[in-house]
User: Which sequence fits this backbone?
């Protein structure tokens, strides 16, 4: 991960509580990230996660030493964000999105109707474009 290694230990505490650390994904997180994303029925392949990890664009939320959530982005576009079912509703997804937003200053996402409330709570402006929901949010 080259020049991103220094960021691996940077954590954030907030709505999800002091036991949540958000850090950059590492090569060793691949299987855990895949499991979290597959648990949310998101289709992001291992090669895509590896590429985004190498680019420093995967964030993981760690609780008690285990990956509880993950966010995969390409630039400022969120490709996938998911939280382990046991940790949903505790602010873990918010922590991931807020960290990504702090890094990029702007985020976009395309998503299914059933996760619209998640993006609305986070302050994304949402529109329907070509039959798909698309959200956008600026930092601040």
Assistant:
């Amino acid at each position: 991960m080259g020049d991103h290694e220094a960021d691996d230990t940077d954590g954030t505490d907030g709505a999800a509580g002091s036991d949540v650390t958000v850090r950059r994904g590492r090569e060793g997180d691949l299987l855990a990230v895949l499991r979290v994303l597959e648990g949310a029925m998101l289709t992001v392949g291992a090669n895509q996660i590896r590429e985004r990890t190498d680019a420093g664009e995967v964030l993981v939320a760690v609780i008690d030493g285990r990956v509880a959530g993950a966010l995969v982005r390409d630039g400022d576009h969120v490709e996938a964000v998911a939280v382990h079912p046991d940790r949903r509703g505790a602010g873990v997804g918010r922590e991931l999105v807020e960290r990504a937003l702090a890094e990029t200053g702007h985020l976009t996402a395309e998503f299914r109707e059933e996760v619209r409330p998640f993006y609305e709570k986070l302050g994304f402006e949402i529109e329907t474009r070509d039959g798909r929901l698309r959200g956008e949010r600026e930092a601040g």
Notes: Residues 2-138 form a domain with the Aminopeptidase fold (CATH 3.40.630.30). The chain has one domain: 2-138. Helices lie at 30-39, 46-54, 92-104, 116-121.
